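note to self — DONT lose this again. spent like an hour looking for the file last time. sequence + predicted structure for the chain T wanted, 207 res
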Amino acid sequence: FDTDSKRKLPEFPKKIAVITSETGAAVQDILNILSRRWPISEIVLCPVAVQGELAVSQMVDALDRVYALNNIDVIIIGRGGGSMEDLWAFNEEIVACAIYDSEIPVISAVGHEPDVTISDFVADLRAATPSNAAELAVADQETLYQTLDSMSAAMTTALTRQLKSARKHYDILRSSAALQSPVGYLEQRRKSLDMVKNRMISAQNTG
């Protein structure tokens, strides 16, 4: 249960494994939210029993099969609400150990917010509901687009400001005497140097 053992979820997962019942509402909620928020991610659905005699062995087997794939970025395991007896498979030690031993970040999404199981404690992240697990697993593309638009607008504003400053500097240089009439400018500078030279010579003679 130590928080130091928790793995960090990837920010932009490419492949997500979903371990849950294929007939419950939870799987539809998860798939719908994942496809809406981050449609470029690939979903690997692992249908299992989530209650009854077969639930424990099927969930452990599904976790082992997902681990063997070596290309999964995050795992969601869970189910919708039910009684304590319905959720009991997620309290079994063998399931908790299989989740804890995972090298892939695991989100536990069992029941509704008040429901808490041992799987929630050993997973890297506990979701209040299966829908919440999908929201935690991926970024929201609409939010990301808005952030990128804001960054683009800020960069455009900064670039426009720099271009205006550069053009103003260019206009000042272009209107300078040196660029308007280089020969005349050099002649003027030559006369100024001659005057300085003459003053220096006069000063020496006076001394």
